[in-house]
Design goal:
The complex is a heterodimer. Chain A is α/β, with parallel strands linked by helices. Chain A is built from 14 helices and five strands. The two termini of chain A are about 25 Å apart. Chain B is α/β, with parallel strands linked by helices. Chain B folds into two domains: about 250 residues, no CATH class; about 110 residues, abc type-2 transporter like fold (3-Layer(aba) Sandwich). The longest helix of chain B has about 30 residues. Helices cover about 65% and strands about 10% of the residues of chain B. The chains are: A alpha/beta, B alpha/beta.
């Protein structure tokens, strides 16, 4: 046992030295996670925000100007200029000057004062379907509000005595911020990326340069090589998780009321699985270029796309949903969102934790067996 | 060899051809790299196109109907008929429904209060409670919006009816929004995403393949062997870069074809314009690859470097979500990003039928960035070689 530990320690020490001598690896391992957290947290937002809205005001009355102000008072739409004709909308879209055009017809104010129904036009650049869908819902809500205001102006208080209405209460993320939704996903993504990539490269480099054969000539056993090589990266991974979570709390106000033990266990299991996957890739690929591209395809992309990190799994077609069941990042994100945002404990998260443990065991066993066979 | 004996102004062409042939042979020999260049982009586009669907509908909802009257059942059924919400179960009390929200079984709890029908009949205001799981803000926003809109419309028309009963000559106007969805009437997400994914793949593949291909040659030592041949440096670099440009053009064509046939992405503009901006963008990606190959000693460094360029480039480009939704301090950073201009240009050309004259800023930016980056990288690479 003592000898085992000494040899593993020696391997780990050697690997740590490699990492320390390569500033790029260190930078990739420690600074990249923070950098990505900030880029994702601020840069990706599915919220309806600052849609440039051009207005064709054919009525040109106080009422029509009020409608325009109602649309652009919040943060959803910003006024992008006046157009003379709704037919110019497509031209404005093609030049990216506006993404929505509101047309207020002539006679708008007159119709309102007579109590007649009136239609306003909204042309949306629906190329970006997500924004268009939200803009549509928002515009309907504004129109409802404007109707109530018009009635109120004529002394008919409708808004104050609505017979039925709905009131919403939002739990877990009351301010509805994309960042809180994304930070747990970024954590999983960054760890999947960095762990798989670094191990895949570190091991395939030894094959490529022929130093793996030299290692085999030493009394260090195969399993010890594996454990020793992975240990420093595991340490780096733990630092990464801490860094990202602490930064997420400070910068984005991520709540930290969850069960720390569940987070720690989930992180550890996920990381061991990812390191195992990196090892497996390097054993199969044996070449840095192939190893790195394989890591991108099997770890980076699925962890981003099939994990529910940004894109809801429920919307995917069945084959992809099935595939997403095999992506460990999905369960890790479930654990992080569950504990950090929803204050879940072991009881609610037992299934994802068990699946993470199963993946980690599978990866370590398969890669160790493959590693041994490769040399026999 | 003919390359050496060819005379005059065509000599460099022959030499260039020789380098290109060598490079292509070397790449084709490695089947795994070929698979990554040819099959992976296609698979990825299909996978991504299906995976990225932001359309929110059928949000799982638990109904707590504390009124249990025909009126309350009708209201719930009518709200579900809209399609944004779908009932997955009922609960007897709000606290049971709360636990379901904790477990993630449902994302919305709709609570119809006791006395709902009675209050409606008496003309007393009544309020339906909607409890939302806000973990995913887009989903909760749309789900909450659907409920608020439905009951708002109900309230508005009920108020009108009551008013009409009291004072038959007073009319209340309703303002309706008549909307028109340009370019994408079915609100399909892939139509927006496919050009973004094509740009992203182009960036990833051409940058990485260029950077690693060149740094590999340096690492293995064959670059020195080539230096001994009579090839001028310019010809050598051009010959090494051209196959990667061809790879990029091939990949983007493949991605676009898949997008058109599988996801019904429209091609409204001219393909010539599309290839012109694509070529301009390739100047940048190949330039960055060359730069990385020049500054890194190993393939690992080149790869990590490519990564550090690619990730921010993708995130600051509007590939997935629009730039105008970014915070104000972040938006100017996207102006340094050639991918931003490339995506704006190809989305305008493909989806909106724009021509180059509609996107002059984007085209000019791609040209300027491309020439600057490729020029600087060539100088640096040349210096490192000599």
């Amino acid at each position: 046992m003592w000898l085992f530990l000494t040899r593993v320690g020696a391997m780990a020490g050697k690997e740590t030295l490699h990492i320390r001598r390569d500033p790029l690896t260190l930078w990739l391992g420690l600074a990249l996670p923070l950098f990505l957290l900030i880029l994702f947290g601020f840069g990706i937002s599915f919220d309806l925000d600052h849609i440039p809205l051009a207005v064709v005001d054919q009525d040109n009355t106080t009422e029509s100007r009020e409608l325009r102000q109602l649309f652009t008072a919040g943060s959803e739409f910003v006024f992008a200029g006046a157009l003379d004709n709704p037919d110019d909308a497509l031209d404005a879209f093609a030049k990216s000057q506006a993404h929505a055009v509101l047309t207020i017809p002539e006679g708008y104010a007159a119709a309102l004062s007579r109590g007649e129904n009136v239609e306003v036009g909204l042309i949306l650049d629906a190329a970006d379907a997500n924004s268009a869908q939200q803009a549509l819902a928002r515009a309907d809500a504004f129109a409802q509000l404007a109707s109530a205001q018009a009635a109120q102006r004529r002394g008919l208080d409708i808004a104050g005595s609505m017979p039925v209405s709905a009131r919403t209460w939002t739990r877990y993320n009351p301010a509805g911020r994309s960042a809180l939704f994304l930070v747990p996903g970024v954590t999983a993504y960054v760890m999947a990326l960095v762990s798989v990539l670094l191990t895949a490269l570190a091991v395939s480099k030894e094959w490529e340069q022929g130093s793996m054969e030299q290692l085999f000539a030493t009394p260090v056993r195969r399993a010890e090589i594996v454990v020793g090589k992975l240990l420093p990266y595991l340490g780096m991974g733990i630092i990464q998780v801490l860094l990202v979570l602490v930064a997420g709390t400070w910068i984005f106000g991520l709540p930290t009321n969850g069960n720390g033990l569940v987070v720690a266990l989930g992180s550890l299991l996920f990381m061991v699985g990812m390191l195992g996957q990196g090892l497996l890739i390097s054993i199969v690929a044996r070449n840095q270029m192939v190893a790195s591209l394989t890591a991108v395809m099997t770890a980076m992309l699925p962890s981003m796309l099939l994990s529910g990190f940004m894109f809801p799994v429920e919307n995917m077609p069945l084959p992809l949903r099935t595939l997403s069941n095999m992506v460990p990042a999905r369960y890790y994100i479930q654990v992080l969102r569950g504990t950090l945002l929803k204050d879940n404990g072991f009881a609610e998260l037992a299934v994802p934790l068990m699946l993470l443990a199963a993946f980690a065991t599978l990866m370590m066993v398969v890669s160790t067996v493959m590693f041994k066979r490769k040399l026999a | 060899m003919s390359a050496v004996t060819a005379a005059g102004p065509f000599r460099w062409l022959v030499q260039l051809w020789a380098v290109v042939v060598k490079e292509v042979r070397q790449t084709v020999q490695d089947k795994r790299i070929m698979a990554l260049i040819v099959i992976a982009p296609f698979l990825q586009l299909v996978l991504l196109g299906f995976a990225i669907d932001l359309d929110v509908d059928q949000v799982p909802t638990i109904v707590v109907d504390m009124d249990r009257t025909p009126e309350s059942r009708h209201a719930v059924a009518a709200l579900m008929a809209d399609g944004s919400l779908t009932a997955v179960g009922t609960a007897g009390s709000p606290s049971d429904a709360d636990a379901a929200l904790d477990r993630g079984d449902a994302a919305v709890v709709l609570i119809v209060p006791e006395g709902y029908a009675r209050d409606l009949a008496r003309g007393e205001p009544t309020q339906v409670q909607v409890l939302l799981d806000g973990t995913d803000p887009t989903r909760s926003g749309i789900a909450g919006g659907a409920a608020v809109r439905y009951f708002g419309e109900q309230g508005f028309s009920l108020a009108k009816q009551r008013l009409a009963a009291v004072a038959p000559d007073v009319q209340i106007s309703a303002i309706d929004v008549r909307s028109r969805l340009a370019y994408n009437p079915s609100l399909s997400t892939p139509i927006y995403m496919v050009p973004g994914i094509a740009g992203m793949l182009l960036l990833i593949i051409t940058t990485i393949v260029t950077a690693m291909g060149l740094s590999r040659e340096r690492e293995v030592g064959t670059l020195e062997q080539i230096r001994v041949t009579p090839l001028p440096t310019a010809v050598l670099m051009l010959g090494k870069v051209l196959p990667f440009v061809a790879v990029g053009l091939f990949d983007v064509t493949l991605a676009l074809t898949a997008g058109v046939y599988i996801f019904d992405v429209p091609i409204r503009g001219s393909m010539l314009d599309f290839y012109i901006v694509t070529s301009l963008f390739l100047l940048t990606t190949v330039g960055v690859g060359l730069f990385l190959a020049a500054v890194s000693k190993t393939q690992q460094q080149a790869f990590v470097g490519a990564f550090l360029f690619i990730l921010p480039a993708i995130l600051l480009s509007g590939t997935m979500t629009p730039i105008h939704a970014m915070p104000d301090w972040m938006q100017p950073m996207t102006l340094l990003n050639p991918l931003r201009f490339y995506l704006e240009a190809i989305r305008a050309i493909l989806l909106k039928g724009a021509s180059l004259s509609d996107v002059p800023v984007q085209t000019a930016a791609l040209l300027v960035y491309g020439l600057l980056i490729l020029g600087f990288a060539s100088l640096l690479f040349r210096k490192r070689l000599d």
